[in-house]
Design a protein that fits this description.
binds pyridoxal-5'-phosphate; 449 residues; 13 helices; four-stranded antiparallel sheet
């Protein structure tokens, strides 16, 4: 074990030391070499040093270098060293996070970390948090709580009776709703097409004056941080209307919710504290390893009721059992890395991380605008949309940039227009990484004419 560990640590250090020099997306040779894994199920076993060396030799070069500071695709985030080290320890411990009786450590860290999170995000202090795999499951869990609550108020126990014959619920979303939220609705039997869609403005923000009539049989889903523009639905006004009507307000804030931890960006996310539930990721902007997200519910009893394995919900017990708040029972103690991120950063570090990424997004936008390209969004957060002219040209530049390997940006369509999307969310990204990436983008764009 000791020799293998030493070997592995050397390989890990080598990986991290060379991530800067390699192509961000694996090159053709590295991808081709993945064929080595194509073998029938082996009759005999393989010793750990041997199989680890196979992973290091063929796996490492084929990874997408999302942790190297120049991956700007989707909103992936990187991993803070403290969280990676904590995750390694967590793997050694192999704690089962389902119940306090199975891991008192996990239960303790969840309780403490939940208080920190509600403080950092400035959300109601009595809210419950479930540690789930990501924002998709967070949306799912929050909407399950909403479904339970609204039907419970109409004397319908959805846990026991399901939706068959239940009073109908309405779900209201913005035209720019994230697909994962629609997926959650479909999993919950609420239907991805049964939704009322509210028109949005040119940044993808819900138009408050275009809301349908609100009532206490409706779930209204707001978005904090549009995956293309980074824009926020105007929560203050909408929450006021929705709360007065008894509507359940849910917020999909997969990355945008973290704006609440920033002094300069906080105003974008103002009013969200009035919602009933929130979904966010920790594996995106908090730079925690996958899979890690949070479902946050103002009234813990509703989340508990929706997630409970038994029919004895609503009878609160004093014991803190994490599986009362998540769809899974057995699961890894994923709070360990969330705790490590917050303990490492502290309030100031978290604020600086968010602020720096927003500043670097502006650096990208200014650099590209100065080079003569069109920025399609108001760069309010960490997302930048750039057009290089025609759709063909924009796509050709994205392809060439991805092959070049200096950095990685993806393509998207924004309100009918092809664009390259830049998302700054890795702690390793500094001004230098942005400068280097900008010159690669501009050089490629000029070369393609
Ligand atoms: C990424 C994202 C999701 C889905 O999150 P996962 O962690 O991939 O499950 C949902 N909503 C928004 C706005 C996102 O950006």
């Amino acid at each position: 074990m000791k020799d293998t560990l030493q070997y592995l640590f050397r390989e890990i250090l080598r990986y991290q030391a060379t991530i800067d020099e390699r192509s961000v997306f694996p090159d053709a040779q590295a991808l081709k070499a993945l064929r080595v894994f194509e073998e029938p199920f082996p009759e005999g076993g393989t010793a750990p040093p041997e199989l680890l060396s196979m992973l290091c030799k063929y796996g490492s070069p084929a990874t997408v270098a999302t942790t190297g500071g120049r991956y700007f695709g989707f909103v992936t985030g990187g991993t803070l060293p403290a969280t990676v080290l904590a995750a390694m320890l967590a793997a050694v411990w192999d704690e089962n996070g389902s119940m306090e009786g199975m891991s008192p450590l996990n239960a303790k860290l969840e309780q403490v970390t939940s208080k920190w999170l509600l403080d950092a995000l400035d959300l109601p202090a009595q809210s419950a948090i479930g540690y789930v795999t990501g924002a998709t499951m967070a949306n799912f869990s929050a909407l399950a709580a909403a479904r339970f609550a609204l039907l419970h108020r109409q004397d319908w126990d959805v846990g026991a009776r399901g939706l068959f014959g239940a009073p109908p619920l309405r779900v209201i979303v913005g035209e720019e709703v994230h697909v994962s939220l629609l997926k959650a609705l479909s999993l919950l039997g609420l239907g991805r097409e049964r939704v009322l869609r509210v028109p949005v403005d040119d940044q993808g923000r819900m138009k408050a004056d275009a809301l349908p009539e609100l009532d206490d049989r409706s779930i209204l889903c707001l978005q904090s941080g549009n995956v293309n523009t980074g824009a926020f639905d105007p929560a203050t006004r909408i929450c006021q209307l929705a709360r007065a009507a008894g509507t359940w307000i849910h917020v999909d804030g997969a990355f945008g919710l973290w704006a609440r931890a920033s002094a300069t960006k906080r105003q974008l996310a103002e009013g969200l504290e009035n919602a009933d539930s929130w979904a966010t990721d920790t594996h995106k902007w908090l730079n925690v390893p996958y899979d890690s997200g949070l479902v946050i519910c103002r009234d813990p009893e509703y989340l508990k009721a929706a997630m409970s394995a038994t029919a004895a919900y609503l009878l609160s017990s004093d014991r803190y059992d994490p599986f009362d708040f998540t769809p899974e029972m057995s699961r890894r103690a994923r709070v360990i890395e969330v705790w490590a991120a917050l303990k490492y950063l502290g309030r100031q570090g978290l604020r600086e991380l968010i602020d720096r990424h927003c500043r670097l997004a502006r650096q990208f936008a200014e650099g590209l605008r100065d080079a003569g390209f069109q920025i399609l969004n108001e760069v309010v957060l960490n997302q930048v949309l750039v057009s290089f002219g025609s759709a063909e040209r924009t796509r050709a530049i994205i392809d060439a940039l991805q092959r070049d390997g200096t950095c990685w940006c993806g393509g998207t369509i924004w309100q009918g227009k092809a664009a390259m999307r830049i998302s700054v969310s890795d702690w390793k990204t500094t001004e230098e990484e942005v400068t280097r990436s900008l010159s690669a983008i501009i050089k490629i764009a000029h070369k393609l004419g």
